[in-house]
Amino acid sequence: MDSLVSITLPVYNSHSTLPFALASLVAQSYKNWKAVIVDDGSEPPIRPIVEWFDDPRMMLIEHETNLGRPAARQAALERVDGSYMTMLDSDDWYYPNKLAKQVEIMESRRDLILLSAGMAITDMNGNMTGKRVLDSSSHFIVFPPQVSLKPLYLAHAPSIIRTEVLRDMRYNADLKRSQDADFLWKIIHRYPFAVLNEIVYTYSEFNGISARKTASAYFYRTVRLGQQFSNDPINALVQMVRSVVQGTLYYGFFKIGLGHWLIKSRSKAPAPRDLEVFQNARDRISQTLQSD
Predict the structure, then answer these.
(1) pLDDT tens, 237-248?
(2) Among 268, 270, 219, which Cα is nearest to 248's?
Protein backbone atom coordinates (compact mmCIF):
# COMPACT_ATOMS: atom_id res chain seq x y z
CA MET A 1 0.00 0.00 0.00
CA ASP A 2 1.22 3.53 -0.77
CA SER A 3 2.56 5.55 2.16
CA LEU A 4 0.07 7.94 3.77
CA VAL A 5 0.78 11.66 3.28
CA SER A 6 -0.75 14.14 5.72
CA ILE A 7 -1.35 17.61 4.27
CA THR A 8 -1.68 20.53 6.69
CA LEU A 9 -3.87 23.40 5.51
CA PRO A 10 -4.47 26.45 7.77
CA VAL A 11 -7.35 28.68 6.63
CA TYR A 12 -8.49 32.16 7.61
CA ASN A 13 -11.14 33.88 5.50
CA SER A 14 -9.93 32.31 2.23
CA HIS A 15 -13.43 31.52 0.99
CA SER A 16 -12.75 32.47 -2.63
CA THR A 17 -9.52 30.46 -3.06
CA LEU A 18 -10.08 27.46 -0.79
CA PRO A 19 -12.28 25.48 -3.25
CA PHE A 20 -9.52 25.44 -5.86
CA ALA A 21 -6.89 24.51 -3.25
CA LEU A 22 -9.01 21.56 -2.11
CA ALA A 23 -9.80 20.56 -5.69
CA SER A 24 -6.05 20.36 -6.34
CA LEU A 25 -5.87 17.69 -3.64
CA VAL A 26 -8.74 15.69 -5.11
CA ALA A 27 -7.00 15.90 -8.51
CA GLN A 28 -3.78 14.32 -7.20
CA SER A 29 -2.63 11.23 -9.07
CA TYR A 30 -1.36 9.99 -5.68
CA LYS A 31 -4.47 9.03 -3.75
CA ASN A 32 -3.32 8.01 -0.25
CA TRP A 33 -3.44 11.40 1.46
CA LYS A 34 -5.19 12.98 4.41
CA ALA A 35 -5.82 16.74 4.62
CA VAL A 36 -5.83 18.33 8.09
CA ILE A 37 -7.73 21.58 7.51
CA VAL A 38 -7.74 24.15 10.32
CA ASP A 39 -10.37 26.88 10.15
CA ASP A 40 -8.73 29.57 12.28
CA GLY A 41 -11.85 31.54 13.10
CA SER A 42 -13.04 32.36 9.58
CA GLU A 43 -16.21 34.43 9.24
CA PRO A 44 -18.34 32.78 8.02
CA PRO A 45 -16.93 29.32 8.85
CA ILE A 46 -15.52 27.28 5.98
CA ARG A 47 -17.35 24.06 6.95
CA PRO A 48 -19.82 24.27 4.01
CA ILE A 49 -16.92 24.46 1.54
CA VAL A 50 -15.21 21.40 3.01
CA GLU A 51 -18.47 19.45 3.27
CA TRP A 52 -19.29 20.23 -0.37
CA PHE A 53 -16.39 18.00 -1.43
CA ASP A 54 -17.76 15.10 0.63
CA ASP A 55 -14.30 13.53 0.79
CA PRO A 56 -13.49 11.40 3.89
CA ARG A 57 -9.80 12.23 3.46
CA MET A 58 -10.51 15.82 4.56
CA MET A 59 -10.44 16.41 8.33
CA LEU A 60 -11.71 19.78 9.60
CA ILE A 61 -10.60 21.41 12.87
CA GLU A 62 -12.42 24.60 13.85
CA HIS A 63 -11.16 27.40 16.08
CA GLU A 64 -13.89 29.62 17.52
CA THR A 65 -11.64 32.68 17.26
CA ASN A 66 -8.62 33.61 15.16
CA LEU A 67 -5.58 32.33 17.05
CA GLY A 68 -3.03 33.17 14.35
CA ARG A 69 -1.12 31.14 11.82
CA PRO A 70 1.42 29.57 14.26
CA ALA A 71 -1.43 28.14 16.35
CA ALA A 72 -3.28 26.93 13.25
CA ARG A 73 -0.16 25.25 11.87
CA GLN A 74 0.53 23.64 15.24
CA ALA A 75 -3.03 22.34 15.57
CA ALA A 76 -2.67 20.66 12.17
CA LEU A 77 0.80 19.32 12.99
CA GLU A 78 -0.53 17.59 16.11
CA ARG A 79 -2.95 15.57 13.99
CA VAL A 80 -0.48 14.46 11.37
CA ASP A 81 0.12 10.75 10.89
CA GLY A 82 1.44 8.43 8.21
CA SER A 83 4.89 8.50 6.67
CA TYR A 84 5.04 12.06 5.35
CA MET A 85 3.76 15.55 6.03
CA THR A 86 3.44 18.29 3.46
CA MET A 87 1.78 21.71 3.50
CA LEU A 88 -0.66 23.74 1.45
CA ASP A 89 -1.67 27.36 1.98
CA SER A 90 -5.33 28.12 1.34
CA ASP A 91 -4.70 30.52 -1.56
CA ASP A 92 -2.25 28.18 -3.32
CA TRP A 93 -2.64 24.87 -5.15
CA TYR A 94 -0.78 21.70 -6.13
CA TYR A 95 0.02 20.46 -9.61
CA PRO A 96 -1.77 17.07 -9.99
CA ASN A 97 1.54 15.14 -9.89
CA LYS A 98 2.97 16.94 -6.85
CA LEU A 99 2.58 14.20 -4.24
CA ALA A 100 3.45 11.37 -6.62
CA LYS A 101 6.74 12.94 -7.67
CA GLN A 102 7.86 13.81 -4.17
CA VAL A 103 6.89 10.49 -2.59
CA GLU A 104 8.69 8.61 -5.36
CA ILE A 105 11.94 10.42 -4.59
CA MET A 106 11.57 10.11 -0.82
CA GLU A 107 10.88 6.39 -1.09
CA SER A 108 14.00 5.89 -3.20
CA ARG A 109 16.22 8.12 -1.04
CA ARG A 110 15.79 7.00 2.55
CA ASP A 111 18.65 9.27 3.63
CA LEU A 112 16.61 12.40 2.88
CA ILE A 113 14.41 13.86 5.60
CA LEU A 114 12.94 16.75 3.63
CA LEU A 115 12.32 17.43 -0.04
CA SER A 116 11.25 20.88 -1.22
CA ALA A 117 10.34 21.78 -4.81
CA GLY A 118 10.00 24.49 -7.44
CA MET A 119 7.05 26.88 -7.50
CA ALA A 120 5.00 28.71 -10.09
CA ILE A 121 4.35 32.32 -9.05
CA THR A 122 0.94 33.78 -9.91
CA ASP A 123 -0.46 37.31 -10.05
CA MET A 124 -3.75 38.61 -8.63
CA ASN A 125 -5.62 37.05 -11.56
CA GLY A 126 -4.12 33.62 -11.02
CA ASN A 127 -1.87 33.76 -14.09
CA MET A 128 1.70 32.49 -13.97
CA THR A 129 4.16 35.38 -13.99
CA GLY A 130 7.31 33.75 -12.63
CA LYS A 131 8.95 30.63 -11.30
CA ARG A 132 11.23 29.72 -8.41
CA VAL A 133 13.65 26.94 -9.30
CA LEU A 134 17.34 26.41 -8.67
CA ASP A 135 20.02 27.19 -11.23
CA SER A 136 20.90 23.59 -11.93
CA SER A 137 20.37 21.00 -14.64
CA SER A 138 19.91 18.27 -12.01
CA HIS A 139 16.45 16.83 -11.43
CA PHE A 140 16.91 17.29 -7.72
CA ILE A 141 19.77 18.65 -5.64
CA VAL A 142 20.89 17.18 -2.30
CA PHE A 143 22.24 19.38 0.51
CA PRO A 144 24.02 18.41 3.74
CA PRO A 145 22.69 19.68 7.10
CA GLN A 146 22.98 23.47 7.22
CA VAL A 147 25.13 25.12 9.87
CA SER A 148 24.91 28.67 8.55
CA LEU A 149 22.06 31.06 9.35
CA LYS A 150 22.33 32.58 5.89
CA PRO A 151 18.97 32.30 4.08
CA LEU A 152 18.82 29.27 1.81
CA TYR A 153 15.58 30.40 0.15
CA LEU A 154 14.09 26.99 0.80
CA ALA A 155 10.31 27.10 0.47
CA HIS A 156 8.17 25.72 3.31
CA ALA A 157 4.88 25.22 1.46
CA PRO A 158 6.01 22.77 -1.27
CA SER A 159 8.21 20.73 1.08
CA ILE A 160 7.47 17.15 2.13
CA ILE A 161 8.92 15.87 5.41
CA ARG A 162 9.29 12.45 7.01
CA THR A 163 7.01 12.37 10.04
CA GLU A 164 9.58 10.41 12.06
CA VAL A 165 11.44 13.67 12.77
CA LEU A 166 8.35 15.65 13.76
CA ARG A 167 7.65 14.11 17.16
CA ASP A 168 9.47 16.87 19.08
CA MET A 169 8.85 19.66 16.56
CA ARG A 170 6.66 22.70 17.13
CA TYR A 171 5.86 25.89 15.26
CA ASN A 172 7.19 28.90 17.18
CA ALA A 173 4.16 30.64 18.69
CA ASP A 174 6.18 33.85 19.21
CA LEU A 175 6.54 34.35 15.45
CA LYS A 176 3.37 35.71 13.87
CA ARG A 177 5.26 35.51 10.58
CA SER A 178 8.31 33.49 9.51
CA GLN A 179 7.28 30.59 11.75
CA ASP A 180 7.39 28.43 8.61
CA ALA A 181 11.01 29.35 7.86
CA ASP A 182 11.91 28.77 11.51
CA PHE A 183 10.28 25.32 11.38
CA LEU A 184 12.23 24.34 8.26
CA TRP A 185 15.52 25.62 9.66
CA LYS A 186 15.18 23.39 12.73
CA ILE A 187 14.96 20.40 10.40
CA ILE A 188 17.63 21.23 7.83
CA HIS A 189 20.01 22.23 10.62
CA ARG A 190 20.02 18.59 11.71
CA TYR A 191 19.29 16.49 8.64
CA PRO A 192 20.21 16.20 4.94
CA PHE A 193 17.55 17.43 2.54
CA ALA A 194 16.95 18.06 -1.15
CA VAL A 195 15.09 20.27 -3.60
CA LEU A 196 13.14 18.87 -6.55
CA ASN A 197 14.10 21.21 -9.36
CA GLU A 198 10.67 21.02 -10.95
CA ILE A 199 7.53 23.10 -10.49
CA VAL A 200 4.80 21.21 -8.62
CA TYR A 201 3.34 23.97 -6.44
CA THR A 202 1.59 27.24 -7.29
CA TYR A 203 2.27 30.16 -4.96
CA SER A 204 -0.11 33.16 -4.99
CA GLU A 205 2.60 35.56 -3.91
CA PHE A 206 0.73 38.77 -4.69
CA ASN A 207 -2.50 37.99 -2.79
CA GLY A 208 -2.83 40.55 -0.01
CA ILE A 209 0.79 41.67 -0.17
CA SER A 210 1.47 45.15 1.24
CA ALA A 211 4.17 47.33 2.76
CA ARG A 212 2.93 46.50 6.26
CA LYS A 213 2.88 42.74 5.73
CA THR A 214 6.29 42.74 4.07
CA ALA A 215 7.81 44.82 6.87
CA SER A 216 6.20 42.48 9.42
CA ALA A 217 7.70 39.43 7.70
CA TYR A 218 11.20 40.91 7.88
CA PHE A 219 10.66 41.99 11.49
CA TYR A 220 9.81 38.45 12.55
CA ARG A 221 12.68 37.08 10.48
CA THR A 222 14.96 39.33 12.52
CA VAL A 223 13.34 38.10 15.74
CA ARG A 224 13.88 34.50 14.64
CA LEU A 225 17.55 35.17 13.92
CA GLY A 226 17.90 36.87 17.30
CA GLN A 227 16.76 33.66 18.98
CA GLN A 228 19.88 32.01 17.53
CA PHE A 229 22.21 34.69 18.89
CA SER A 230 23.50 32.63 21.81
CA ASN A 231 24.42 29.74 19.48
CA ASP A 232 26.23 31.75 16.82
CA PRO A 233 26.42 35.44 17.81
CA ILE A 234 28.52 36.78 14.91
CA ASN A 235 26.61 35.00 12.17
CA ALA A 236 23.28 35.83 13.81
CA LEU A 237 24.19 39.52 14.09
CA VAL A 238 25.28 39.69 10.44
CA GLN A 239 22.06 38.09 9.25
CA MET A 240 19.95 40.28 11.56
CA VAL A 241 21.49 43.42 10.09
CA ARG A 242 20.95 42.05 6.60
CA SER A 243 17.30 41.33 7.40
CA VAL A 244 16.72 44.85 8.76
CA VAL A 245 18.29 46.40 5.66
CA GLN A 246 16.25 44.22 3.31
CA GLY A 247 13.03 44.90 5.22
CA THR A 248 13.64 48.65 5.11
CA LEU A 249 14.38 48.45 1.38
CA TYR A 250 11.21 46.51 0.62
CA TYR A 251 9.09 48.85 2.77
CA GLY A 252 10.50 51.87 0.94
CA PHE A 253 9.85 50.34 -2.48
CA PHE A 254 6.24 49.63 -1.55
CA LYS A 255 5.77 53.18 -0.35
CA ILE A 256 6.87 54.58 -3.72
CA GLY A 257 4.74 52.12 -5.66
CA LEU A 258 7.49 49.72 -6.74
CA GLY A 259 6.91 46.94 -4.21
CA HIS A 260 5.27 44.53 -6.63
CA TRP A 261 8.06 45.10 -9.14
CA LEU A 262 10.66 44.26 -6.47
CA ILE A 263 8.79 41.12 -5.43
CA LYS A 264 8.42 40.05 -9.06
CA SER A 265 12.16 40.53 -9.65
CA ARG A 266 12.88 37.68 -7.21
CA SER A 267 11.45 35.16 -9.69
CA LYS A 268 12.63 33.94 -13.07
CA ALA A 269 10.51 34.46 -16.16
CA PRO A 270 8.56 31.31 -17.11
CA ALA A 271 9.44 29.60 -20.39
CA PRO A 272 6.68 28.72 -22.89
CA ARG A 273 6.82 25.10 -21.71
CA ASP A 274 6.36 26.24 -18.10
CA LEU A 275 3.25 28.17 -19.09
CA GLU A 276 1.88 25.20 -20.99
CA VAL A 277 2.35 22.79 -18.07
CA PHE A 278 0.86 25.35 -15.69
CA GLN A 279 -2.22 25.82 -17.84
CA ASN A 280 -2.71 22.07 -18.24
CA ALA A 281 -2.52 21.62 -14.47
CA ARG A 282 -4.99 24.46 -13.84
CA ASP A 283 -7.41 23.09 -16.44
CA ARG A 284 -7.32 19.64 -14.91
CA ILE A 285 -8.09 21.00 -11.45
CA SER A 286 -10.90 23.16 -12.85
CA GLN A 287 -12.42 20.03 -14.39
CA THR A 288 -12.18 18.28 -11.03
CA LEU A 289 -13.92 21.20 -9.33
CA GLN A 290 -16.72 21.20 -11.89
CA SER A 291 -17.27 17.43 -11.69
CA ASP A 292 -17.44 17.24 -7.87
Answers:
(1) 777 787 788 778
(2) 219
